[in-house]
Amino acid sequence: MLKLLRSERFPAFLLLGAAIVGLVVANSPVGPAVLDFSHLHLAVPGTPLDLSISHWVADLLLAVFFFGVAIELQYELTNGQLNTVGKALKPAIAAAGGVIVPIVIYLVIAWDPATRDGWPIPTATDIAFALGVLAMFGKGLPSKVRVFLLALAIIDDIVGIVFIAVLFATDIDFGSLAIGAVLIVAFGALSRFVSDRNKLVVVPLMVVIALAAWAFVFEGGIHATIAGVLLGLAIRQGEGLQARHVLEPWINGLILPVFAFFSALVVIPQVSPSELSPALWAILIALPVGKIIGITIFGGVAMAVRPKGTEPEIRLPDLVAAGTLGGIGFTVSLLLSNLAFADDATLRDEAILGVLGGSMIALALSGVIVSLRARHHRRLAASTSA
Questions:
Q1: What whole-number distance in Å separates Cα of residue 127 and Cα of residue 106?
Q2: Cβ(69)–Cβ(331) under 8 Å?
Q3: Which residues pair with 51 in a beta bridge?
Q4: Residue 228, exposed/middle/buried by CB under 10 A (0-12, 13-18, 19+)?
Q5: What's the pTM value of the predicted model, to 2 decimals?
Q6: Which residue in 94, 119, 111 sits closest to 287, CA to CA?
Q7: In principle, which of 99, 168, 310, 329 could form an S-S bond with 333, CB 3.0–4.6 Å?
């Protein structure tokens, strides 16, 4: 089972299944009871922490997911696919297109003041889903296509993290943030003293410090998932990679499916399509269409800058395949929907439906296009070796 949870295919199926179950449950006879349960508040005695179950999932459990993302970011920025400007530049340009074009499409459709705050929602790429589709349908694709997609998705994650940190900070408490920062530094420093002799003492202490840092960042007014990001960047790389390896089955098998389930607890509005919010249509179009257009055009421009007479690193049809994969927003887009429309439950629910619908369209498109490109490369390889 652990092997399945560490794979690229199975967690994607699990995540999609959890979202479908959440949507079905919300629209079933038990839906109202489950929704009431998700709104049930749980407080930590002796602290100001008093959150609903759905907020504990989105704020605390998802911080663990972002902790794992940040560890991967740290590795890629120092030893991996983004450790030089040359490696990062082309996927960064493509990623910029995959952010800018969806924003433009969203604002054209949902410029009304009531809905325009949702513009960050269609900018995200779900790396787990994208790599899952690539593993399922991409047999035969050149490794450089996978590397390009991985780098693009990681840069998208960075953009999403910046949006969460900058756009959704409220009632900033600099005192709490300062304490949180000190605790994060202490966490990072302790990670550099972990050894086989002391890990039974130091690691539990690091967990306690991490939880305290999360609480102070939460109280500081910045979305608490940012604490996970900062802790993941602060930890020593060796210990971080070990921690990510241990946490990966829990993130893939529990945290992300639970988050997807609670996020998808949305009652489908019983109205005509014309009565639905422009935000839903904007996300539904901006995710699959905006990502394909943005990544393909900006990526094509990036690939055009090369020595005369040489072949592009990634050909245009493969950029289209990467664009379809980029349109699978899911996890971070669901979180951004909850944050952008936190004060309007109806808009939030319709935005979530837009994310689910847009991601499903991108998922179907990417399955077809990636399969076609993989078949082309397999034939090319066969003819070359013959």
A1: 22
A2: no
A3: 42
A4: buried
A5: 0.84
A6: 119
A7: 329
The CATH number for 2-168+223-385, chosen from 2.30.42.10, 3.30.300.20, 1.20.1530.10, 3.40.50.150, is 1.20.1530.10
Per-residue pLDDT of the chain (386 residues; tens, 9 = 90+): 677 777 767 787 888 888 889 989 999 999 899 999 988 998 888 888 888 898 898 888 889 988 988 898 888 888 877 777 777 788 889 999 999 999 999 999 999 888 999 999 999 888 777 878 887 888 888 877 777 877 887 788 778 888 888 888 777 889 999 999 999 999 999 999 988 888 889 999 999 999 999 999 989 888 888 899 899 999 999 999 999 999 989 988 889 889 889 888 888 887 777 778 899 999 999 999 999 999 999 999 988 877 776 777 788 889 999 899 889 888 888 889 988 998 888 899 999 999 999 999 998 999 899 999 888 888 887 777 65
Tokens representing 349 are 């629910």
Q: Tokens 């079933």 sit at which residue?
A: 28
| Boundaries of every domain in the chain | 2-168+223-385
